Amino acid sequence: MDAIFKALADPSRRQLLDRLDARGGQTLRELSEGLAMSRQAVSKHLAVLESALLVTTVRRGREKLHYLNPVPVQEVADRWIGRYERGRMTALSRLKRTLEGSPVMDKPEFVYVTYIQTTAEKLYQALIDPEFIKIYMGGYGPESTWEVGAPVRWKMDPEGEFEEVGRVLEAEPGKRLSYTWHTLQPMHREMFGRMSDEEWAEAVKERSKVTFDIEPAEEAAMGVKLTITHDGFDSPDSKMLEGVSGGWIMILSTLKTLLEGGRFVSDQGRDASA
């Protein structure tokens, strides 16, 4: 908390966060444009924001892209707003809007980082185990053999048949999982936010890709770092992006709570049948 408040205390750093709020995925050069600071000064401010985990970066070729990371803001909201039971939904809504700035073509449109006190192996297993997935995705979720090229399928409802929604692109246990998402099913409409009939009709036509990267956290006590990148959307005005952004925040928040609370795959069969 101290690092977060210290980082936010400087107006120049708040200005940089505002810029990333308006448009994620900017380079150092783009963030420096029009500011009364040298590029070196901007770089130093970004380093402070990264140390406080308010900014996360993704490398694409030679470029280093910067994104606003809402996780510390959520922790502040839980500590200083949630304890008084005021404005919880307002805080979550603001976090959702933070991640829904103007998308930039040819860059990851949605990037979310969270730290979970677990092992890389357990986290990867939680991403692929169907019974555990049902818990943190609210009864639905992907199922596959999780081999490269294998279909990724979802159920419409508990009694329905599995339907293919994508294909596995990468599957490296404990490190990386990636699959295409070329079909939205009706249950996604509820899970990934409210949409009008017109917005839903546009969203179901889109294709995209979701990637989970797992790596050790910068500090051992923080466990592992999970980065989810949902990109490859067909349009900068993607309706699918609007829906999945808020949905992933809630899903991964539940996943983090389950793993850190000691409830894992071996316990979920009993929970799901209870």
Please, could you describe this protein's structure?
43% of the residues lie in helices and 21% in strands. The chain starts with a helix and ends with a helix. The strands form 2 sheets. It has a 6-stranded antiparallel beta sheet with strand order 3-8-7-6-5-4, covered by helices on one side. Strands 1-2 form a two-stranded antiparallel sheet. With 274 residues, it is of the alpha+beta class.
Features of the shown structure:
21% strand; 274 residues; single chain; disordered C terminus; two-stranded antiparallel sheet; 8 strands; six-stranded antiparallel sheet
Which SSEs are present, and which pair or pack?
Layout: H1 2-8, H2 11-22, H3 28-32, H4 39-51, E1 55-60, E2 63-68, H5 71-80, H6 88-98, E3 110-116, H7 120-128, H8 130-136, E4 151-155, E5 162-172, E6 176-181, H9 186-191, H10 197-203, E7 208-216, E8 224-231, H11 239-260, H12 265-273
Antiparallel strand pairs: 1-2, 3-8, 4-5, 5-6, 6-7, 7-8
Shape: globular
Low-pLDDT runs of 5+ residues are: 85-90, 101-106, 265-274
Largest sheet: 6 strands, antiparallel
| Strand arrangement, major sheet | 3-8-7-6-5-4
What proportion of the residues is helical, as a percent range?
40-55%
- Please provide the ordered H/E string of secondary-structure elements: HHHHEEHHEHHEEEHHEEHH
User: Whole-number average pLDDT?
Assistant: 77
The termini sit apart by 38 Å
